[in-house]
Amino acid sequence: MFFSFDGIDxxxxxxxxxxxxxxxxxxxxxxxxxxxxxxxTPLGEKVRDILLNQKNIQLEMETEMLLFxxxxxxxxxxxxxxALNKGKVVVCDRFLLASVVYQGHAGGISPQVIREVGxxxxxxxxxxxxxxxxxxxxxxATRVGDATDRIESxxxxxxxxxxxxxxxxxxxxxxxxxxxxxxDSIDSIQRQIQSTTEALFExxxxx
Length: 207
Ligand code: TMP
Fold this sequence. Notes:
This protein is α/β, with parallel strands linked by helices and 207 residues long. The protein has a single domain (2-205), classed as Rossmann fold (3-Layer(aba) Sandwich). Helix content is 58%, strand content 13%. It is built from 8 helices and 5 strands; from the N terminus they run E-H-E-H-H-E-H-H-E-H-H-E-H. Strands 2-3-1-4-5 form a 5-stranded parallel sheet, sandwiched between helices. Helix 4 packs antiparallel against helix 5. Bound molecules: thymidine-5'-phosphate (TMP). Thymidine-5'-phosphate is lined by residues 9, 36-38, 52, 68, 93-94, 98-99, 102-103, 151-152.
């Protein structure tokens, strides 16, 4: 089974991913493969460095989108699919939804076009469940602090669009997305994630 965590930077998804992976291992005895986007493969980590750290390299929004997709195409084929084929649980920090929101809703490329390009990158491998974290962008910015990468250092207006984009996508996203309020307590969020996952495991068992 394939889970992804997404949402505005600073919304607490990393902490929740740590707890979730430990719970899958301890309570469900599942083998867990954790990965991140961009990154997760030797190529992906190099692309990540260009995308996030090399601020003196000029990147147009279309180039940026395609680099995220290149990292994703490699991750799907090198890590995610082989793990799923062996019955492992994959937990990925961000996936295609991040491109739809950051480069699409916030970056100005048509979300529909990004979904089309995404079909090539993912080869139609999609998360069974995406936990989408929301948080007021002003609060999220204080949590991120000064250590910001290329994307995080974009202005408040960009972050507002990211926030609005995630909210819109969740509304339209159907059953494979679960909205999480990043302002809730760590325990409460983790309980919501675990009960959603239990329900999903139950559904798979009954099929
Ligand atoms: P991270 O900080 O959660 O590791 O994500 C890296 C940054 O890259 C984050 O600011 C979100 C951004 N991002 C995109 O803009 N598009 C994408 O497709 C992905 C995966 C991440």
